[in-house]
Amino acid sequence: MAEAAERLERDRALLGRTSTAERVAAILRGYITEGVYQPGERLAEDAIGGALDISRNTLREAFRLLSHERLLVHRLNRGVFVRTLTAEDVADLYRVRRIVECAALREAVPPSQEGLARLREAVRAAERAADDERWVDVGTANMQFHQALVELAGSTRLEELMRQVLAELRLAFLVMTDPRAFHGHYLPLNRDILRRIEAGDLDGAQRALEKYLAHAEGELVKAHA
What we know:
72% of the residues lie in helices and 4% in strands. The chain is mostly helical. The chain folds into two domains: 2-82, Arc Repressor Mutant, subunit A (Orthogonal Bundle); 87-224, Four Helix Bundle (Hemerythrin (Met), subunit A), CATH 1.20.120. A three-stranded antiparallel sheet has the order 1-3-2. Strand 2 (72-75) and strand 3 form a beta hairpin. It starts with a helix and ends with a helix.
C-alpha cells in the first residue's frame, strides 16, 4: 500500500488543473492492469485521495466508473475492493477475446507498419523481461501484444473495449501461483503469431491465436475453479 501511495503522488501531475474522475479512473485502471492493486484488496479513500490531492466526490466517481467496468466492487459498510474473478468470469472474458482479437486479424489487411512495429516491440519487451526474471512485466508486455493485435483493425472503439477486457484479465492472471510457468509458455507463441502476420499469413495467425486463447482459458478456468 505504501508503494502504491508513493506512485499515486508521482502521478498527481498527470491530473493537472483540470482533474476529472475519468483521469483518476485511468490511473487506477493502469494500476490494476499492472498488478499494483491485488484482487480482494480494499482501496482506501483517504490514502488515494490524499496522494492524488483530489476531492472525495471525484474519487468516488472514479470508483463508480471502475465498478461499471467490473474492476471494483462496493461492499456495504466495508468500502471498495478490487474484484476477485470467478471461473465463469474468466470463460466470458475469453469468449470476448476470441471474438474481438480474431476479428481484428481478419480486418488487418494489410497490417500497417506502425502496427507491426508495436507488435515487435511488445514481443521484445516480454523477452527482455523474461531474461531478467521479471514475470509480472512479462504479463504486462503480453497484454500489450494483444492490445496491439486489436489495434491492427484501426477501430478506436475496439481498442477501448480491449483495454477494459485486459484490465479485468489482469485480475485473473494474478491468481496464478507460478507466473513464470504461466507467462513463459506464451512467449514463443506470441513470436510465432507475429511471424505469421509479417509473412502475410493472417489465416494462419488467426488459427494460432485461437489455439493460444483456448489453452490460456483452460489454464485460468482451472485455477479459478
